[in-house]
Structure formats: C-alpha cells, structure tokens
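User: I'm writing a tutorial on reading structure tokens. Could you give me a worked example: one chain, its sequence, then its tokens, then a sentence or two explaining what the tokens reveal?
Assistant: Sure. Here is the example chain.
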Amino acid sequence: MVAAAFFFSLMSLLVKLVGQSMPSQEIVLVRGLVTIVIAYTAVRRMVGLDFRGKRRGLLILRGVLGFAAVSCFFYGVVHLPLADVTVIHYTNPAFTAAIAALVIAEPVRRRDAASLAASLTGVVLIARPSFLFEGASRLDPFATGVALLGAILSAGAYVTVRELRHTEHPMVIVLWFAVVTTLGSIPATVSGFVMPEGWQWLALAGVGVTTHLGQVLLTHGLAVETAGRAMTVGYVQIVFAALWGALFFGERPDVWTGLGAILIVVSTLAVARRARIGAP
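And here are its predicted structure tokens:
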C-alpha cells in the first residue's frame, strides 16, 4: 500500500510537470492509450474471457464517469497545490457511501452522513473561500470546485463498479474504462494538440506506467489486508504529494490545510472501518 501510494503520487507529480505546457486532456488521452494496451493484453491472455462484457450500458456509464473524474482530477493537479488536490480527492469514499445508499440501496449509517459533512468541512478549511473567510480565497475557487466534482464523479464510478462486479471481470471493466476515456479525450486533444518534445514523452509514458503500477499494488494490498487498515496506510500518499510539491514547486501547506486534511482523513477512515472487503 505504501508503494501504491508512492506511484500514485508520482503520477500526480508527472501530470503537474507536463501539464504546465500541455493540455490536460492530452495527458488523459495518453493515460487511456497506455491502459488499453495493458488491459487488452491481460484480457487476451485469459482463456474464455469475453472483452465485450455482459452489461455494456453500465460499462459505458462507468467509463464516462471515470473519464470525467480523471479529467477533473488532472485539471485540479495542474491548477492546485499537489497536497491540497490529493486531500480533496480523498473525500470520494464519503461520497461513495452516500451515492451507494441512494442508487443501489446499500445500508447507510449516521456515521456515513457525519463523515460526508466532515469531509466537506475539511475542503472548506483547505480552500478557505472568500465568502466565508476574510480576504481572497486561498485556492482558485473554480479549480477547487472541479477537483471536488472529480471526487464525486469517482464515487459514482466506484458505485457502478460495485454493481458490475456481479457479472463482469475486473479487467474487462478496466478495458472499457480505458476505451471510453480514450474516445472521450480525443476531441479536446485534437482541437488543442501540442506535440510533446524530449522529456515530455517520458513524462507522458510515466503517467501511464505509474498509474498501472499503483493500481496493481493497490489490488495486492487490498487482497492481503482489510480495507480499513489498507486505507490508513494509503494516506501516506498525502505525505508524498506534499513532499513533491515542496521540492518541485515550492508549495508549503499551512495549518488550515493540515486541519482540513485531518478532518477528511478521519471521516474517510470512519467510512472504511465497516468496509471489510477483499480486493475488487
């Protein structure tokens, strides 16, 4: 889980570095293409596995939600400090519990509602919008809103995965997600295409590779440890993100960011404590 957090934070660093000179949708496209190659190769090696899937409508919906979530997250990574956008993205477990209760009738507890409220309060402390705090907003309000929307969309994607697990192989779900992401990012990439140069090619390839390594290690971590404990270790990604932000971009989280991060971490762990599940 520590290694998974490291590679996910490294992916965010590469996105932020290359995103300073390239459109974020172009980065999303490259990530989708790399995932297609990896997922399709894996599916082809599994005898009897039909990559077309059984519930194509829900597979497409999962792909659309995932594509939109990744797009929002990448936009937030480029326009916000790495530690802040990482913490905001970690509100998605609380949203997942709320959406699952509404859409697929999973049981919801008062703890889940309190966790969602605490997570949103944490986001407010991190962003400190001007209409609640004196002076200018600490973070770009639009970018903060996009990052939070990405967390909500991620939650929606996770709920569709929970429903698809009854009929679809995980690798088929990943393959459809990659295909939809690639198709969805092509129009914006074509309209504002920037030809990568030198190190940018390596950074773009690194985004895809680090994402895949992070997902593989995450799956192995969840296979041998309960979700609650695994989630606890996974929060080291925030530490890595803060370190990259300080080293490469001179970003220094303040006390309010620390308080907001604590609220979000504690509230998410409260949701994860009852999620005694194995690997997806």
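What the tokens reveal: The two ends are 15 Å apart (CA to CA). Confidence is low (pLDDT under 50) at residues 276-280.
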